[in-house]
From TrEMBL:
Protein name: Protein Wnt
Protein function: Ligand for members of the frizzled family of seven transmembrane receptors. Plays an important role in embryonic development.
Gene behind this protein: WNT4
GO molecular function: cytokine activity; frizzled binding
Organism: Naja naja
A UniProt-annotated Pfam family: wnt
UniProt key word Secreted: yes
Length: 148
């Protein structure tokens, strides 16, 4: 939460100032949560004193800034309709990426298939006065990688 204020008065003279607490933009909140989950999320378990303690004693106690979770997420690698998980079998992946879209992560270490597929794209587009664009259709063969 952050404090936002607005001035009221003749020509913005700020004779009266109104302030309120506001949430940051949704995109910023999402980015912070994603970053914290990807790098620093720590699982905690309840104890008899009703305090959260680390599941692994090697972790330091959490702070108010940490993202803490109590239950592990479902395994998104395998098909599990009970939890609404479709799995990653057959999903397209990026062979060269080390990020979440990369075949190594997305395919959960199961490997991937490589196929050659024909792609039809618009190409040699030209603008005609006035007012449309005319393109040709180009065919090319690309490698497509999908999870096993």
């Amino acid at each position: 939460m952050r404090v936002e204020c607005k001035c009221h008065g003749v020509s913005g003279s700020c004779e009266v100032k109104t302030c309120w607490k506001a949430m940051p933009p949704f995109r910023k909140v999402g980015n912070v949560l994603k970053e914290k989950f990807g790098q620093w999320a720590v699982r905690r378990i309840g104890s008899s004193t009703k305090a959260l303690v680390p599941k692994n004693s090697q972790f330091k106690p959490h702070t108010d800034e940490d993202l803490v979770y109590l239950e592990p997420s479902p395994d998104f690698c395998d098909h599990d309709l009970r939890n609404g998980v479709l799995g990653t079998h057959g999903r397209a992946c990026n062979k060269t990426s080390k990020a979440i879209d990369g075949c190594e992560l997305m395919c959960c270490g199961r490997g991937f298939h490589t196929d050659e597929v024909e792609v039809v794209e618009r190409c040699s587009c030209k603008f005609h006065w006035c007012c449309f664009v005319k393109c040709k259709q180009c065919h090319r063969v690309v490698e497509m990688h999908t999870c096993r």
